[in-house]
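sorry for the late reply, my laptop died twice this morning and i had to redo everyting from scratch. anyway the thing you sent over, i finally got around to it. pasting the sequence first so we're on the same page, its 220 residues, then the predicted structure underneath. double check i copied it right bc i was rushing
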Amino acid sequence: MTSNNTAGAAAIVMALIYVGAFVYFGAYLGFPDSKHADVVMPFLAQNHHALWLAYFMIYVAFGVLLAVLVEAIETRLGKSPASSYHQLLRVGTLFGKVWVCLVIASGMISTIGMSRAIGLMAESNEEAFRLWRVVSMLVESLGGGNELVGGLWVLAISIVGLKRGVFTKTINYLGCVVGVAGIATVYPADVFTEIFGLTQIIWFSCIGVSLFKGAKPTVL
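ok and here's the structure:
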């Protein structure tokens, strides 16, 4: 496959990972609404392998695919003959690369941390639960509860796309919405995280299709 096709496939798979995460954690597997070690830790132990796979896909696999997409979009926007907004493209791409690192790091912390916490159950559920709470806090801080870095990347490349006529205006305006929603997640309200996730499913899908088609600049 060409690099555009590879990046297009990566974007579409990322959208599917988002959908799978919403379905899995929203409809199939719900964490117990409890702060007691004797409730939470047995739940983690019982669902260890399924949760490990889910976290690996949501963070590690997603991060690898994101790296492919960040590089492809930088190349696509950089090929535009327009020289305007070059600095914004460079800064935006930097945020994209930082996001890749944060997402993959979140996956490594969540999978290894969960295994370590479950292992501590043989000694004490309370100690295991304390470790799991630290792991959860780190994962939420880096790649789950705050999407500032990802929002800055999407917003920056969407502005560059609009100014340089790369991708459609619809995709770029949608990207601006995604970016603003991501930046807004710095405020402690779950609604912004949900908006960011849902709109990004659409954005990833649109970007993927556009890369597959190798679409020329258009005003639609």
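The CA atoms of residues 64 and 100 lie 7 Å apart.
thats about all i looked at so far, will dig more tmrw
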